[in-house]
Design goal:
355 residues; alpha+beta; Jelly Rolls; 8 helices; binds 2,5-dihydroxybenzoic acid
């Protein structure tokens, strides 16, 4: 057997080295010097690859899933987006989950709760709803909806056509930490609580907050940030030329009680890139999931290439890539983005570079 290159790092002759490693393996230990540079790298080397899940193809497969399994049988009828660089793991980036969910008219995805936090980004359909701890909200295209960890949630469809959305969850993190718990509700839908998501929105939005805060937990009390409102704000900011060179015209979904991210583990934002505009390069540690909402944006990853994003396409920018966005000359582009940036920030691991 020829020597592996890493063996040269040790001063042992080959046979001694092999025999020594075997003696170590028998004791469940291993020499660090074989792997030091991989274990403690100069910079991150994510395994995820840049990848586009084209809505044109995904939509057909998602509709097809409706005849393969019912929402009742599936509990959640979801196609998980598996990044081709991750060898079959159900992760879109190295550390974030993404899935496409379908609910047909009259179906109910029965109530359950889990310690993973979820977001929904609504892609298509009319009449969809989701309930969070008994409070129901309509699902409209472009809405950003939060299901906080350990809250009961069920989804349904009172409309006449399919309703589809993107799920974003912190599944890989919770799996890594072995902190996953799940429970089924004892009925398919929750007992409705009084209150509307509109009322929750009014109570907490626009920097007008209750004198006494009764909201517990680390997730925003607002659980539906409607697209109409987000779009209006982006439009106004664009008119004031309030634009960040790397992020374009942008809003991040905030917890109004803290000013921090709406979710403890996931950062979500919406960006508008004015027609003909190209942002400056941006690089940050976390992988990012992008969704095309309007216009014809493209993402260029330095040294890799350019990726066009159409409506409802899902695109992954791997962590530590140098990337920039562009909108073609015909229309402004709008992109939804989410990542697990809050986790990096809380642990002192967040890093970014501009330009
Ligand atoms: O809707 O509750 O994509 O529990 C994965 C796990 C969605 C959900 C997913 C889930 C859900």
């Amino acid at each position: 057997m020829s020597a592996r290159p890493e063996d040269k790092l040790s001063s042992y002759p080959d046979d001694t080295s092999r025999a020594y490693r075997e003696r170590l393996a028998a004791l469940n230990v291993a020499p660090l010097w074989d792997v030091l540079k991989g274990l403690v790298p100069n910079e991150p080397r994510p395994k995820a690859m840049p990848h586009t899940w084209r809505w044109e193809a995904m939509r057909d497969r998602l509709i097809e899933s409706g005849s393969v399994v019912s929402a009742e049988e599936a509990e959640r009828r979801v196609l998980m987006l598996e990044n081709p660089g991750l060898g079959g793991l159900p992760n879109a980036t190295d550390t974030i989950y993404a899935g496409l969910q379908l609910i047909l008219p009259g179906e109910i995805a029965r109530a359950h709760r889990h310690t993973q936090s979820a977001l929904r980004f609504v892609l298509e359909g009319v009449g969809g709803y989701t309930s969070v701890d008994g409070v129901r909200t309509e699902m409209v295209r472009g809405d950003f909806i939060v299901t906080p960890a350990w809250t009961w949630h069920d989804h349904g469809n009172d409309g006449n056509g399919p309703v589809m959305w993107l799920d974003g969850l912190d599944v890989p993190l919770v799996t890594f930490l072995r902190a996953g718990f799940r429970e089924e509700y004892d009925a398919s839908t929750q007992f409705p609580r009084s209150g509307e998501s509109d009322q929750v929105y009014t109570r907490y939005a626009d920097a007008l907050l209750p004198l006494e805060n009764k909201h517990a937990g680390t997730t925003s009390p607002i659980f539906n940030y409607p697209y109409a409102r987000t779009r209006e704000v982006l439009d106004r900011l664009a008119r004031y030329s309030d634009i960040d060179p790397c992020h374009g015209v942008n809003v991040r979904y905030a917890n109004p009680l803290t000013g921090g991210w709406a979710m403890p583990t996931i950062a979500a934002s919406m960006r508008l890139i004015p027609r003909g505009y190209t942002t400056e390069y941006f690089q940050s540690v976390e992988g990012t999931v992008l969704v095309g909402v309007e216009g014809s944006p493209s993402v260029e990853i330095d040294g890799v290439g350019r990726f066009d994003i159409s409506d409802n396409d899902v695109f992954v920018v791997p962590g530590w890539s140098r990337w920039r966005m562009r909108a073609d000359a015909s229309s402004d582009a709008v992109l939804f983005a989410y990542s697990d940036r809050p986790v990096y920030e809380k642990l002192g691991l967040y890093r970014e570079k501009r330009g």
